[in-house]
# Entry
Amino acid sequence: MRRLAASALGKLAWLGVDQAAAVAALAPVMRRDPHPQTRQYAVKALKAYGAAAWGCLHDLHDMARNTSLAEYLQRDAAAAAAFIEEAVRIATAAAVQHCQRCNVLVTADEYARAQQAFQRAFCDRCFDEVFLAYRYDAKFRIIGECQIQPDFYLPEVDVYIEY
# Structure
């Protein structure tokens, strides 16, 4: 149940929840939960909060270097730390970014998310439109337990493209 709660908090990051409260709730789960998968979900959720999770960087770096932890937990902690550091760097530099589709100002977290997914600057609205328009290298179950990783998936027309 805690794993699902951590996952849900991560998904709420995109909906404008109180970021400080969410990070405060996730941090102890990331640090001390007895179940590695629950800790992993908390790490992934903290990543979604970008610069707001800067206070967790030290713990994330420690987790990434801790060889007694599961490899997937180390890997996800390193990825979250890198993402949060980039969001902090952008916020600190006070870089003014504009969405490449609609030209509105883009927050540091929006910019970091879009850069990671598309290497482009998108606001959250345009990010969602672009992400839903196609997904690059996403894994999808096709038949039974078989998974394929097509180059693109177009969800509006349920088409997989291998190029």
Observations:
- The radius of gyration is 17 Å.
